[in-house]
Structures are given as structure tokens and as C-alpha cells.
Design brief:
Blueprint lengths: L6 H21 L12 H6 L32 H17 L7 H10 L4 H17 L5 H8 L4 E4 L8 E6 L10 H17 L8 E6 L10 H14 L4 E7 L6 H11 L6 E4 L10 H11 L1
């Protein structure tokens, strides 16, 4: 590692730590006891909050089609948006695939600038990933959840975002089957989206790097994390705070950094005492007490 890194270098390897850690974080995000394993069938097709129906039950031709309110720019009028949702639905029907809910379809359309072909490819990849996890045993996933490596903080930050906390030192590479970690990531992200309040569509990630060692480095999970936020849950992560990252993480970061592309702009390396800046008043005190 040779010498003390500059601020830019530190930001780089910490973002790596954020990836490895956020991957583990991604696994354990369910904060309630047993909603961790709700309907497996619904879990394969629905990922949007408060959606009572899955695709096949949604009539995209109805006059009052309710479109999502994404918090990233969508310069498309309503008629074009409805048309795009209908065309994307038709693509799924033509290929004999189950439909996700309408809001999920539009979220992916907005992410792909309403290009139906690109949206179908990306959304189809997400559904294929979820479907492959349906048969993963619950008990293995639940054991991993109870390690405490990651969880959803019960209060939002000062911007109203759900807060996902990841404890890097509690993730040990190969301790659990990789498929269990994938399913836990999926469930945590679903729960985070489900618990978002109106007007808030993104997550604040906080990765606690205190005590991080080489046994906690997991490049395979880091790659999965990149897929989770690029492909499976696009534009859901708004900011990632990497707390007190050690130099030992730098080699892993050098591997992960090229995979992150534009997401590197979302990472901030901070000290523990800077975290309270993201909460207001008494909420900041409660968060700091929990984080310790």
C-alpha cells in the first residue's frame, strides 16, 4: 500500500469498500421479523411498494393508468408514457413472460429514457435474476440476516430517504451460500422500496468500515452489488457514505472501481462524527447512538 493515500485515492478505495460492504448490506435489509419471506410468487415479479397486483392482473389500457413519480428527470408527456408502458407490456406478452407491476415497468422505462427495447432487456434481466432465487431455502437466508451485517434503520434521514446500514466486519466471505446472499439482497431492497414514503424514491447507504479485515473482502459479492444497482434496482441508491475506511481495503477497491462507472460519484468517505449531519435534531442523536 506504500504511504498515505491522497484524499482522491482514499475516496476511491473506500468506494470499493462500499461496494463489498454494500453487497453484504444488500443482503440483510429486511428489518421486520418475518416479512422477510413473504409470497415467493409475488417476489419473482413485483418489486414496487404498495402494489396489490402483479403484471398479469394490471389493465394497462384503462383510462386512469397510474404512473410512477420517479425523482429523476422524465421529459416525456403522459400520453407517450402510457404508450411506452403498453408497448412494454405487449413485449412481455409476446414472449410469454409474466409482467411486473405497472410502476416497475415505468421505472425501468424512465431509466432507459423510454426506449422499449432497452427497457425490456434490462427489466427482463431483473426478472430472470429474481425467478432464479425463488427456490433458495428460507432458513439459510434467515441465518444470514440474523448476523446483523446489514439492516434498515427505522427512521429516514433529513431528506426522507430510507437508510441502509451495513457492518462490513460482520460479513465473512463464503460463510453462507452465495444464492442465499443474493436472495437476502433482493428481499432487503424490496423492503426498502416498500417502506419508502411518497415523494422519496431512493436509499441512503451507510457502510461501517470499522474493524474491516481481509476476511471481509468479497469481490464476487461486490460484482453482484454493481449488478443490483445498475441493472436490478437502477437509480435507487442516491448516496453511499463509507465510514472510517481502513487502508487494507485499497486493493479490493482497485478491483471494484472500474465496475462502478458513474456510480462512483455517489460515494463519500466520511468519519463517524460526520454522520449526524444527515439527520435532524433528536433524530441525529438516536442515529448516532444506534450506530455506535
Amino acid at each position: 500500500l506504500g504511504g498515505r493515500p491522497s484524499g482522491v485515492e482514499l475516496k476511491d478505495f473506500v468506494f470499493g469498500c462500499l461496494c463489498g460492504i454494500f453487497t453484504m448490506a444488500a443482503f440483510v435489509l429486511s428489518s421486520t421479523s418475518n416479512p422477510l419471506f413473504r409470497s415467493r410468487k409475488a417476489s419473482a415479479t413485483c418489486m414496487r411498494r404498495n402494489v396489490p397486483k402483479c403484471v398479469a392482473e394490471v389493465d394497462v389500457n384503462r383510462e386512469g393508468l397510474d404512473l410512477s413519480k420517479a425523482d429523476f428527470p422524465i421529459f416525456v408527456d403522459r400520453d407517450e408514457r402510457v404508450k411506452a408502458v403498453k408497448n412494454l407490456s405487449q413485449k412481455f406478452h409476446e414472449n410469454g413472460r409474466p409482467l411486473p407491476d405497472v410502476e416497475t415497468m415505468e421505472w425501468f422505462l424512465a431509466d432507459r429514457r423510454y426506449d422499449v427495447e432497452k427497457s425490456y432487456e434490462k427489466l427482463g434481466g431483473m426478472l430472470k435474476w429474481r425467478e432464479a432465487l425463488v427456490e433458495v431455502p428460507d432458513d439459510s437466508v434467515e441465518r444470514e440476516y440474523h448476523t446483523g451485517k446489514a439492516y434498515l434503520y427505522p427512521e429516514p434521514d433529513k431528506h426522507g430517504r430510507k437508510v441502509l446500514i451495513v457492518r462490513a466486519s460482520k460479513h465473512v466471505t463464503n460463510q453462507f451460500p452465495f444464492e442465499s446472499s443474493e436472495r437476502l439482497i433482493q428481499k432487503m431492497m424490496d423492503d426498502a422500496v416498500d417502506e419508502m414514503t411518497d415523494g422519496t424514491e431512493t436509499i441512503l447507504g451507510v457502510v461501517d468500515m470499522r474493524g474491516f479485515a481481509m476476511k471481509n473482502s468479497d469481490v464476487k459479492l461486490a460484482q453482484l452489488l454493481v449488478d443490483v444497482f445498475f441493472t436490478y434496482y437502477p437509480r435507487r441508491l442516491s448516496e453511499l457514505l463509507v465510514v472510517d475506511a481502513p487502508l487494507v481495503f485499497q486493493p479490493m477497491w482497485q478491483v471494484i472501481k472500474p465496475l462502478l462507472k458513474k456510480y462512483s460519484a455517489l460515494v463519500r468517505f466520511v468519519r463517524k462524527d460526520q454522520l449526524n449531519e444527515h439527520f435532524d435534531g433528536a433524530s441525529a442523536k438516536r442515529f448516532m447512538a444506534d450506530f455506535d
